[in-house]
Recover the amino acids of this structure.
């Protein structure tokens, strides 16, 4: 099962049909915030940063001690859709979570280690987004109010 389908399933959303959709664009949680009797869709997305580095060394005929360490950091982005339905207000929240994995051997370009790490932690990513949405409700409302005030000027 593709990562976007797992995250959507864990978040209770229908799976997206595009199998090549980048992980950072998969919608994982949506809430509605009401301002002046008008509902605004607020979506919370996970933006992933990945890093790989090779630790250890391989010397000639000696056994290698190289290991590839992969770090995956999920950061939460808020996308508020205003009257047109287009995401007008986009901001990154100060919420993140990191996961690490280590496999024997050097890191290789095109490795699927980061995708596998994200897939193993899809449920935790979905919980991170739900928790962020719950704690961000007041800030989302404040951002919507500020946008309306600026639009009236």
């Amino acid at each position: 099962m593709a990562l976007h389908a797992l995250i959507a399933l864990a978040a209770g959303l229908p799976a997206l049909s595009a199998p090549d959709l980048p992980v950072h664009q998969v919608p994982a949680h949506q809430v509605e915030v009401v301002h002046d009797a008008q509902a605004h869709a607020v979506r919370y997305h996970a933006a992933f940063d990945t890093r790989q580095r090779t630790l250890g060394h391989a010397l000639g005929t000696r056994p290698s001690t190289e290991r590839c360490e992969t770090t995956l950091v999920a950061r939460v982005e808020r996308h508020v859709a205003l009257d047109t339905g287009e995401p007008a207000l986009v901001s990154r929240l100060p919420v993140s979570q990191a996961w690490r994995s280590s496999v024997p051997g050097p890191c290789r370009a095109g490795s699927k280690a980061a995708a596998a790490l994200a897939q193993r932690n899809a449920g935790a990513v979905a919980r991170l987004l739900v928790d962020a949405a719950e704690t961000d409700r007041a800030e989302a409302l404040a951002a919507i109010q500020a946008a309306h005030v600026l639009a009236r000027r």
Remarks:
- Residues 1-27 have pLDDT under 50 and may be disordered.
- The beta strands are 27-35, 38-55, 67-81, 87-104.
- The first helix runs from residue 3 to 11.
